[in-house]
Predict the structure.
Amino acid sequence: MNKRKCSVALIVATATSYLSSTANAEDLRFTIFGAENRINSQAVTDQLNGEVVDMMERSADADEKHGFVVGGGISSAARSGLTYGLELAYRRNGFDVSGDNQFVGTNEERSGRTSVMSAMLNADYEHSGIGEGAVSPFMNLGAGYARLRTVLENDDFKTVDNAPAFQVGGGLRFHHSDRLSTFLEYRYFRAIADGDNVDSDYVGHGVSIGLRF
């Protein structure tokens, strides 16, 4: 097992140990979420070319311009508005690329996909609330590791690498009961890639909706 895989395992083990020390299950909160995910096309271009060359073309109407992120997590109950937790997420985007290199011929257009699996330790701060606490603004930040994968159609080009990552976000949480709430959140995610196969940062962002219970 290499150092990066050990780091991911350490993140999960540390978070699990912290959360398991909580007195009882009533002190834990579970979260699921989903969102549209937008990415930086330059990172994909760099992986295909091995250098910065502006060859990425996208149609404004192409579905491949958009992607998605889904995830879930477990966290401690709020103490003075602050919670800590572990989050796992999966991001995926399609893309169209055209240009002239060993993978894409002149005047040809190819499609592919890029995906990211991430494990993050998050800290979340929630304000006391608006309107007798029914709506609460919140902000969060997290750090961890991500596994990046980019593939062209027919699998004739593929890169896989691991990278440290961070994310920041904020939004509104709507409380329906003592345990149940829904939320709307903007999140910025960045994997700082500098490995053997991927040397351009992956950036994803979008507005998500979710449920905490």
